[in-house]
Structures are given as structure tokens and as C-alpha cells.
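Note to self: keep these together.
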Amino acid sequence: MKSEMKSTMNKKKLITAFIEYLEGELLSAKDAARATYEAATHEESKPENEYDTRGLEASYLAGAQAKRAGEIEEVLTLFKTLEFHEFAPHDVVQSTALVEVETRGKRTFLLVMPKGGGFSIKLDGHSVQIMTPSSTLGEAILGLKVGEVAEIEVNGQLREYEIISLA
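Structure:
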């Protein structure tokens, strides 16, 4: 078991960086949805014959982009309203924890959130990914403490993730 160590990542700075990132992503998603909707409803998108589906395809794409914007907005709202707890090294991993894990000699930061899995940013030279409890790794690390190891199967092989720090 490695000695307990405090994360070097500033959690407040990380939350602010995620909010800025998500605001940019939301703006881009809304712009893309708006542009695709305008293309789908434009006069030139009307079908020329019964086999012309350009307008229909564009409307499906606009709908998917609007849905994506809604998902980003939900995660952004969580970041703005959720109470982010500060964790001590002896605490267990739970929602809003910033967890540093090591697997195969590589360290990674994970921010445990109820939604938003897969979003990631770089901060101070470190990559930080949002991990939800519904993911395989998220489920495996919940309830663990610094020094404990989560084991999950990845591509048929057992992979170990040691909890290095918690904030």
C-alpha cells in the first residue's frame, strides 16, 4: 500500500475549468443544431423527388444535435449547482470526489459525477475525465480508500487501478 498523499490538483480551479469548457461545448452544440435546423428547413432542402432524403436526414441530425446540447446543459447545471465536497485521504470515493488512480504505471485523474461521463479536460498538464458510478471503473472505485485497488476486466484482461489520492 502506498503512503497517503494529497492530490496536487486544485479542485476549485478544476470545477471552474470544467464549467468554462462545458459552456464552450454548449455554445458550439447549439450553434451546430441551429445551423443544421436552418439547413433542414431551407427551401433548397425540399425533396426533388420521392428518393431525395436530404431534408429528412438534416432534420434528424438537427434533432440529435439539439439533444446533445441538452445533455451538455444538464452536466453544466450540475457543475453550477452541485455541492462539491472536499475529501480527506481516509474518506471513501463517492460523488464529487477527485480521484487520482494509477494503472500500469500511468496516473490519471477522475472526477466522480452523477452525469457527464466521458467529458475530459487538461488542467495544469494533467488530463481529468468525468467518471460516473454507472461506468465499470466508476462502480469499481466507489467506496474505496487511498491505497486500495479496484480490479476490472478490460478486453478480457484484469486491470488494477490503485487509488493514489482523493480530494
